[in-house]
């Protein structure tokens, strides 16, 4: 996976930031941080959803894929989901409703809002 990520559109809730650094946090390449700016803020956590949500298969619109130079069966396409760390009162959750679609060759990315999809905004993160 590449380390420099450029979002074609700002992430929801983070206007202005488009260039980030994606850093793996484990040897398996499942958990990542996404950081913007010289000071590394904001910092988001992301995971590859497959090991945690076996049934997760978001339908990414063709227009979104085309803007990233990808097709639906392209092996350069990676889907990541943003994770909100938990606490004693709340579990760690993943945003399955707005995945990040990444072209692993160019580093271009989009956050795609899956309108009308059955995926939750805050799915508890557990190993599948």
Automatic annotation (TrEMBL):
Any GO BP annotation: regulation of translation
PANTHER family with a match to the protein in the record: FLAGELLAR ASSEMBLY FACTOR FLIW
Domain of life (superkingdom): Bacteria
Pfam families assigned to the protein according to its UniProt record, in alphabetical order: FliW (PF02623)
Listed name of the protein: Flagellar assembly factor FliW
Protein keywords: Bacterial flagellum biogenesis, Cell projection, Cilium, Cytoplasm, Flagellum, Translation regulation
Species name: Sanguibacter antarcticus
InterPro entries named in the record: Flagellar_assembly_factor_FliW, Flagellar_assmbl_FliW_dom_sf
Keyword Cytoplasm annotated: yes
